[in-house]
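Entry 14. Ran structure prediction on the chain below.
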Amino acid sequence: GLDFRVGVTGTATLDRRAWRQAWADAAREEVSGDYADPAGEHRLRAALAAFAGRQRGLGAQAEDVLVTGGTLHALNLIVRALLPPGSRVLMENPGYRAARQVLLDAGHEVVPVPVDADGLIVNVDTPAARLVYVTPSHQFPLGGRMCLPRRLALLEWAARHAALIVEDDYDGEFRYGAPPLPPLAALAAQTGAGGRVLYLGTLSKVLTPSVRTGFVVAAPPLLSRLVRARTLLDFGPPVQVQTALTALLSGGHVDRHIRRSRRWHAQVRAALTESLDGLEDVAHLGGIEAGLHVCLHLHPAIPARDVAAELAAQGVHVTTLDTYTQGEAPNALLLGHGGLSAAQAGTGGRVIAGTLRKCATRAGLAPYCEA
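Output, structure tokens:
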């Protein structure tokens, strides 16, 4: 079957020769009998800072970077190091369910905040909190990009309430014709919120989740507390993994891979969107400007759960938004295309379109003609 699974990426464009060479070189390095820097090797932190500067416009230095085991690992460190027990945390609704669970398991109060096409809604009714968790580059799961006025409003809110912002930029490297918007971390110094943004980056989408490597960019007072938490938790990442990733980053292989991957994923996205053409009265796509998933919003008369069940019976697996939402979920399907080829995305999209047309007919959404 075809699985429109969210959170995975393809490796078809990976330079296998450069990949194998980086790991072989790392294995040949002298093995130390001592513990490494719990913040991460300086060479990798410098390479990640430079990478964030090239890709996202962040003016970070090695000293501003902590190497992590990925986004959830970073969030666990933040919870341990920076939040007092029982803190109030604002979170997008719908939003990243695993992040929400990390916060709940740590005993914090998670307050859902609605989102729209421009991201998290920030206004006079937004409550005070110790921290807010957001995905402004490609809201998860609806897919919108937080507009610049909304970003500035969020930074002003953080300054007013002395709150921290966790900016999860999980797949911001992938844009399809849309101009890049400055990360919150880059805007913070202009709004009086400098030092309040913790920027979370990851190599899971630009390379592969199997490397289990991400990073935090934060102000020194916050970073030192995170390093202490990491020291007490596991004393830092494996050195050989860091050595291989440093070579891939410093040698330009990751940047070249991202350029190839953008072209690949743009073709996949185009095949998917083309296969869903002609459904304007039944469904419309959201979140198509960036990222590795799209959100297919359905007509109210066509329940997403019923469509997902019918598709599963045909071997096409999609996700509804129920588990991502506190309260009533939007009537939509989540279509992850990061792990698919253009042919697979097109084939699956045609099955989805055909199923929706049948559902529309049964729901009496006539006249409706197949495209």
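Residues 205 and 313 are 29 Å apart (CA to CA). Will compare against last week's run tomorrow.
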